[in-house]
Amino acid sequence: KGKGKGQKGKKITLKIAKNSIRISLDGGRRLDLSHMGITTFPKCILKLADVDELDLSRNMLKKIPSSIQKFQKLRWLDLHSNQLEELPKAIGMLQNLFYLNICNNKLTTKKLPEELNLLKNLCILNLGLNCLDSIPTSLGALKELKELSLFDNALTTIPSNVKNLPNLKKLNAKRNPFPDSTKQEEHVDSIKRIENLYLVQEKDLCSSCLKICQDERDKLNKLKNVTPRPSGKPSFPLLLTPNSSAKDNQEEWRLR
Prior knowledge:
It is built from five helices and eight strands; from the N terminus they run H-E-E-E-E-E-E-E-H-E-H-H-H. It has helices spanning 14-19, 160-163, 181-194, 207-223, 250-255; strands spanning 21-23, 29-32, 53-55, 76-78, 99-101, 124-126, 147-149, 170-172. The longest helix has 17 residues, at 207-223. This is LRC18 protein. One of its GO terms (cellular component) is cytoplasm.
């Protein structure tokens, strides 16, 4: 009664696993066992270790065994939305791994294996929605990393060698208790406001560029209902006294 279900979760047989293999867009073989109520890593899928992608997301897994290293061809591993509290060191043996999603689990910094730094071909890593209070500096060895998600953790800092990874294009670290985060955001915003501002002197512009700038300036003046200032000696009719009555000989004026 209730065989294969209940607290033990759904039992995955080799037949079920084989029927769950799909062909991905790039022609790879994808084993999709997501959202199936699995509580224990199904050993039978080790017989299908030649797949390119493995999706075990949205289950109730608490542990991934060291035997995961048998999936040597694996390029894509999705473990998000489980109850994982740790990862095996053997995960570092998946040298072909391109994508690793372990978002929305219960991982702590202590249970994050240092062997992650062995994943030299990893381009996308999602560690969001976990219990991480720091990020190992060893992740700075992931030189191919392009996208790193660290959102919704307990981070107060990110190692500089991780932030400055040479190929990193996206870093999502939202909703972490970084100190002075408001000031940091204001500082970043102020930089963005002037990042496209370039100042040059008129003498450095060619005649055509100078004419374009002058025409644009004249248009702007008209929009603001400001009469363009005539060339020659500038005048300041709106200035108040004593400058309005100052003579060309300022020394004489001061002596009075």
